Amino acid sequence: METLIVAGGEIEKKDLATYYKNNSTRINIIAVDRGLEVLYQLNLIPNHVVGDFDSVPDKILQDYQDNPQVIFHQYNAEKDNTDTDIAIQLAIQLKSSKITIMGALGKRMDHAMANIHILKYALEAKIPCQILDRYNKIYLIDKHYTLYKNKTYGKYISFIPLTTTVEGITLNGFKYPLSDASLSIGLSLGISNEIVEEFATIEVKKGILVTIESKD
Asked: Cα–Cα distance between 53 and 73 in angstroms, integer?
């Protein structure tokens, strides 16, 4: 079963409601601290809640704590892992077939960057994992991957090294192709590519690419 993680960053309620409507019969929901408030506003019940709950209104917290369907995982505010980090690890423990995170981006760039990095947990567990907001779909690639032009999240596809160097990158079907190239941290070569064929392929021999499908 798929898992939807609703984190405490910026979320368009309409987007979350639409995602839930399209996937409600096959997802678990994990609320991350303040993400619980957004779910409450949409009358959605999570399966699990993680966090220290210092940013959740008492009434909302009490209503969900009184619901026997909801499992709470409470942690001290002073801990080594972020709440979203804990949520991803919980989703992996639940043997999720896919993980989608909403509310992972927003005003706090430190949290946004950390949330992109911790996608690596799911990659290592061989579970597809993505961050979604209104304008971006973010995930990691470390091997062969195919994108279909009519199914991409937006017009632009960017590739940014997560590891120090990513080697053996071959891009076919893109406006700016590559053949057995390398990308290193500090270079912007992989930004704003576009698919020009019906589908495009990415090959990676070594390393991990952050892949971002974007729309304006």
From this structure: 10
Give the C-alpha separation, 74 to 57, whole Å.
15
The CATH architecture one would assign to domain 2-134 is 3-Layer(aba) Sandwich (3.40)
pTM: 0.93
**Rounded Cα gap, residues 165 and 37, in angstroms:** 40
Burial status of residue 24 (CB atoms within 10 A of its CB: 0-12, 13-18, 19 or more)? exposed
Burial class (CB in 10 A: 0-12, 13-18, 19+), 76: exposed
Q: What is the CATH number of domain 141-214?
A: 2.60.120.320
The candidate with the shortest Cα–Cα distance to 159, out of 197, 110, 213, is 213
pLDDT tens digits, 74-96: 876 566 678 899 999 999 999 99
